[in-house]
Amino acid sequence: MNFNKTLTIWYSEHKRDLPWRKTKDPYYIWLSEIILQQTQIAQGLPYYEAFVTKYPTVFDLANAQESDVLKLWQGLGYYSRARNLHTTAKHVANNLDGVFPNSYQELLKLKGVGDYTASAIASICYGEPAAVVDGNVYRVLSRYFGIDTPINSTKGIKEFKMLAASLMDHENPSDYNQAIMEFGAVQCKPKNPYCYTCPLNESCVALQKNRIDELPVKLKKTKVSTKYFNFLVLLSTDKETIFQKRTSKGIWQNLYQFPLLETDQKLKIANFEKHPFIKSYFGDVPFDFSLYNNKDIVHKLSHQHLHTKFWIVEIDKLPQKGIPIADLKRYPTSILISNFIDEFFES
C-alpha cells in the first residue's frame, strides 16, 4: 500500500474546513501553529480568529503591548507561548522586514518555534519536504507500524522523526503533512478510532494484533506536585483592590493576580491572622476577613496541582497602591483568577 498517497487522498475527501488552510501566508500559518500547540482545534479556533482580527499583520502584533497580547491569550494556558509569540513577531517585523524565514533550519531560530512548528511552516508555506511529528503523527505511525518505543523518550523521538522523514511525499509535502496530522485527529483518534472504515486497516499492525489501545507507548510523567495558594482579595472602602504583576519566572509570568500567600499545607481560618506573612503585610492596620471558598479550588496544571483559597479582606485603606475594582478585567490574568473575578464581582 502507498502510505502517503492513501493519506493524501483521504485528506482531500475528509479535511475540515479551517481558516488557516485557505492561505500559504507564513504569518497566519505560524500563528495557527503556535495557538494550537497543546490545544484542541475547537478551543483554539476562536483565539486564532480573535488574533487575526486584532492583529492582521505581523507588524500589528509586533506593535502591540505585551499585556494586550496576554489578555487576548487569556484562557489558553501555557502563557510562555504568548510571550514567545510576541517576541518573535517583534523580531520578524523589526529585524527581518516582516518576512518570515523560508526554510526549516532558519525557522528553527525563531523563539518558540521547535521541530514540529518549523516543519509545518516550511512544508505548508514553502513546499519543503520537512516531516512533521506531533501527537497525532506519533499515534498514526506507532499503530500502523506497531512500534512500541516510547514516544517521549530520546530514542523514540529520533526513531519516529526518521520514520516520518522516510515516508514524506516529496512532491506534495504540504498536503501530506496536513493529511497525516488530520488523520490522527479525526480518524485514528486516541480513543475509539474508526478502525473499520480506515483506509489503512488491512495493513495496520496494531489493528491486526489487537494493540490499538496500547499504542503509542509513553513513559510515565514526572510526579505532579501539590501547592497551596492563598489569594488575598483586598477590598477598600473606596472600592479599590491590589492586583499585582507576577514577575517571577514559571507559571503565569507577567500575568496579574491578587497578593499571594503560598503555604506548605492548607491554611485554616483560625490560623489566618496569626500567619507571619499576614502580620507583616497588614501590620497594625485593622481589617475584617472571610474565606470565599471553604472547599479548595483545585487548578490542575501539567506539572502541579494548585489547591486554592480566596480570602476576602475588607479594609479602610489599602497597605499599598491599588487599582479600581471596576478596572480588574482590563488586566491579563490566569483563567483561575478570571473565573473568580466573574463569580465574586459579578454575582
From TrEMBL:
<dbReference type="InterPro" id="IPR015797">
    <property type="entry name" value="NUDIX_hydrolase-like_dom_sf"/>
</dbReference>
<dbReference type="InterPro" id="IPR029119">
    <property type="entry name" value="MutY_C"/>
</dbReference>
<comment type="similarity">
    <text>Belongs to the Nth/MutY family.</text>
</comment>
<keyword id="KW-0326">Glycosidase</keyword>
<keyword id="KW-0378">Hydrolase</keyword>
<keyword id="KW-0479">Metal-binding</keyword>
<dbReference type="GO" id="GO:0000701">
    <property type="term" value="F:purine-specific mismatch base pair DNA N-glycosylase activity"/>
</dbReference>
<dbReference type="GO" id="GO:0006298">
    <property type="term" value="P:mismatch repair"/>
</dbReference>
<dbReference type="InterPro" id="IPR000445">
    <property type="entry name" value="HhH_motif"/>
</dbReference>
<keyword id="KW-0408">Iron</keyword>
<keyword id="KW-0411">Iron-sulfur</keyword>
<dbReference type="Pfam" id="PF00730">
    <property type="entry name" value="HhH-GPD"/>
</dbReference>
<dbReference type="InterPro" id="IPR023170">
    <property type="entry name" value="HhH_base_excis_C"/>
</dbReference>
<dbReference type="InterPro" id="IPR005760">
    <property type="entry name" value="A/G_AdeGlyc_MutY"/>
</dbReference>
<dbReference type="GO" id="GO:0046872">
    <property type="term" value="F:metal ion binding"/>
</dbReference>
<protein>
    <recommendedName>
        <fullName>Adenine DNA glycosylase</fullName>
        <ecNumber>3.2.2.31</ecNumber>
    </recommendedName>
</protein>
<dbReference type="GO" id="GO:0034039">
    <property type="term" value="F:8-oxo-7,8-dihydroguanine DNA N-glycosylase activity"/>
</dbReference>
<dbReference type="InterPro" id="IPR011257">
    <property type="entry name" value="DNA_glycosylase"/>
</dbReference>
<dbReference type="GO" id="GO:0006284">
    <property type="term" value="P:base-excision repair"/>
</dbReference>
<comment type="function">
    <text>Adenine glycosylase active on G-A mispairs. MutY also corrects error-prone DNA synthesis past GO lesions which are due to the oxidatively damaged form of guanine: 7,8-dihydro-8-oxoguanine (8-oxo-dGTP).</text>
</comment>
<dbReference type="InterPro" id="IPR003265">
    <property type="entry name" value="HhH-GPD_domain"/>
</dbReference>
<keyword id="KW-0004">4Fe-4S</keyword>
<dbReference type="Pfam" id="PF00633">
    <property type="entry name" value="HHH"/>
</dbReference>
<dbReference type="GO" id="GO:0051539">
    <property type="term" value="F:4 iron, 4 sulfur cluster binding"/>
</dbReference>
<feature type="domain" description="HhH-GPD">
    <location>
        <begin position="35"/>
        <end position="186"/>
    </location>
</feature>
<dbReference type="InterPro" id="IPR044298">
    <property type="entry name" value="MIG/MutY"/>
</dbReference>
<keyword id="KW-0227">DNA damage</keyword>
<dbReference type="GO" id="GO:0032357">
    <property type="term" value="F:oxidized purine DNA binding"/>
</dbReference>
<dbReference type="GO" id="GO:0035485">
    <property type="term" value="F:adenine/guanine mispair binding"/>
</dbReference>
<dbReference type="Pfam" id="PF14815">
    <property type="entry name" value="NUDIX_4"/>
</dbReference>
<keyword id="KW-0234">DNA repair</keyword>
